Amino acid sequence: MTGTDVQTRYFEEFADVLLRCNHLYHPSNDSIALRNAVESRRQIEIFDYSRSADAFTRAFGMRNSLKCLQALSCLEVTAHKYTRVCDLGCGSGAFSLAFAHLADNPELELHGLDISEHQLSLARELMSAAGLPGRFQFEQRNLPAQIGYLPDLTISSYWFCENERVIADPLLFDLMAGREMLIVDYEKIIDRIAASLPKGFHILARHSAHVEIPPVLADSVAQERASVYSIHIGRTKD
Ligand SMILES: C[S@@+](CC[C@H](N)C(=O)[O-])C[C@H]1O[C@@H](n2cnc3c(N)ncnc32)[C@H](O)[C@@H]1O
């Protein structure tokens, strides 16, 4: 099997999981209007999730989840080793879903944090519909805040773009990071994280890639390919 075949299979298997959640992802008039508005503005957006959590999920949930799976390909053979995983700004569960699928680990304890109760209730519904192994807990939290333990891995997609002050503040960055952290975000945000990484952290990997959207998801994702920017960070041992 060629590298491209393996990559295609990797995404096709995940497409089956996403289709199990299609009732949460299927486009609505509101989600189509939101996507059109965002695409016409071409800027980093901060959404009002109290009004648009459902439309946000239908417009961007599947695409974000596919991007997160692409970013996770650097952990493909080790994903099951991260037992305590925390998803910062988990929203409706895009990164949580991709991680749980890849890890396929009944011992996984995945903890999603978000300020929006609307987003969290969608994340709970999504994980329940997906039926993936592991324990999942989604909790309302205004971040940055104490998490109470050091996760093996912190994952985060499109949260830093809404909380850029955390990038510039070493204490807040330290508070949010687990032993390792994998971040998916806009290119500009990943550049900023890489350039201002506080002492005590180092870059394990940094990727930019394209995801070819599986044709079975074409109706929901409404694009053929998407760009992904990610950075994998570790704590430096003393
Ligand atoms: C762009 S969405 C991304 C959601 C999800 N990670 C994804 O990739 O689809 C950003 C999420 O961060 C959450 N968020 C933003 N600022 C926050 C804060 N200060 N504390 C907790 N959650 C926050 C929002 O409620 C929203 O769900």
TrEMBL record:
Residues 80-204 form the Methyltransferase domain. It comes from the Bacteria. This is Methyltransferase domain-containing protein. CDD domains: AdoMet_MTases. One of its GO terms (molecular function) is methyltransferase activity. Pfam families: Methyltransf_31. Keywords: Methyltransferase, Transferase. Transmembrane segments: none annotated. The keyword Phosphoprotein does not apply. The lineage of its organism: Bacteria, Pseudomonadati, Pseudomonadota, Alphaproteobacteria, Hyphomicrobiales. GO terms for biological process: methylation. The keyword Protease does not apply. InterPro entries: Methyltranfer_dom, SAM-dependent_MTases_sf.
